[in-house]
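Predict the 3D structure for this chain.
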Amino acid sequence: MAVRRSPKFANFAMLGALLGAVAAFILTVSIPQDLEYARANGFAEYSQMQIFGFLLLIGVVVGIAIALTIAILLDRRSSKKRRYVEADRVDVREAPVPSADIETDAVDAADAPAIEHNPPQAYPTTNEGKA
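Done. Predicted structure below.
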């Protein structure tokens, strides 16, 4: 059996989205809002929240893309360092608990050996024998 460590892609994507959002916030705060300069040169006027929204969309997408690219590279690197180990299959099940209303001699079909055929026992109904 081959064993290797691999990155969790969802964690990388969430981290990339978070870093993209932080970068968008930092860029929004660092851009000076000079409305007079924008009006004088014919640029569009955007509020700081609109700028943050635009940068947030771009930052989250770019952050996720970069983080997933790093995760893919780490996954490829880890596939080269795989180890082969010998493993045994262990099937662990709890023992069935006998209840008071069911006979303890009855064997469930799931617990019966594969060679024998032990159908589940049918319990009598109250309408048996009545027409």
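The mean pLDDT is 79.
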